[in-house]
Amino acid sequence: MMFDRETQVVDCRHGMGLGRGGGLAQRGTLSETGRTDVIAVAMSPGRRHITKPVCELTYGMRREEIQVSVLVLNTGSGVPDTNMGSGSFGISPEEIAQINRHKVAVIHTGNIREHVVRKVKAILEEASIPAVIVCQTPVDFEDFAMAGVKTRLVKPQESDILTKGRVMEIVSGVTRGESCSREKLNELVKAVKTTMRSLENQE
Predict the structure, then answer these.
(1) CA 173 from chain center: how many Å?
(2) Where does the signal peptide begin and end (predicted)?
(3) Predicted TM-score of the model (pTM)
């Protein structure tokens, strides 16, 4: 598993059998895929590799013929405090532009509910894209709506909406740092395909 520290774009081919579409990208680009359908957005990595199981999630989607790229944010590892007071999370205009090139974002976060909601909200405030949320902690549409995030099932009052993007599906129970179960991979693939179909039906 490799990633370019300057562009923060991941190459998950090594040991994963992804084949075509995982080469290291140049500055400002993403890994090469046939179409810009889905982008998997991961929080910032440790010094050696991105947080497991992002590559497994990517591989599971690609195996089901979903075109997916991976973007690792420059910041976003977070700290275990409710208010994220350290300011450790952020997203750049360049990263927003990369996300907006795609049809659907799969946003992978962690196990602190407040952090999951805040990070997703920060991304969707700028990224006008439907999103599938993958996290460890149980979280629901109402949690996001209460924070001003548009969702598929629960909508904040018009005056309270703070995001351009919308949460379409949620896959919880995916543990950071551990392998992802076949059940959760199947749940993610179903969530992404359902979201893609809903977009096609709107066209």
Answers:
(1) 15
(2) none
(3) 0.80
- Helix residue spans in the chain (DSSP H): 54-63, 93-100, 113-126, 141-146, 182-202
Which residue spans within the chain are E strands per DSSP? 2-4, 9-11, 38-42, 68-72, 104-108, 130-134, 150-151, 166-171
SS3 call for 76: coil
> Number of C-alpha atoms within 13 angstroms, CB side, residue 93?
0
Cα dist. 91→16, 98, 123, 180, 202 in Å? 28, 11, 7, 26, 29
* Region at 17 (left for phi over 0; alpha for psi -120 to 50; beta for the rest): left
List, in sequence order, every residue forming a beta bridge with 10; answer none if it has no partner: 3
The amino acid sitting at 62 is: R
Residue 31 token pair: 């890994």
Q: Which pair of structure tokens corresponds to residue 93?
A: 């205009």
CA distance 62 to 201: 22
Architecture in CATH for domain 11-78+88-193: 3-Layer(aba) Sandwich (3.40)
What is the largest distance, in Å, between two alpha-carbon atoms of the chain?
Answer: 48
* Structure token pair of residue 106: 């799969």
Which tens digit of pLDDT belongs to each residue from 8-26? Answer: 344 454 333 333 333 333 3
- Rounded to whole angstroms, how far apart are CA atoms 116 and 59? 23
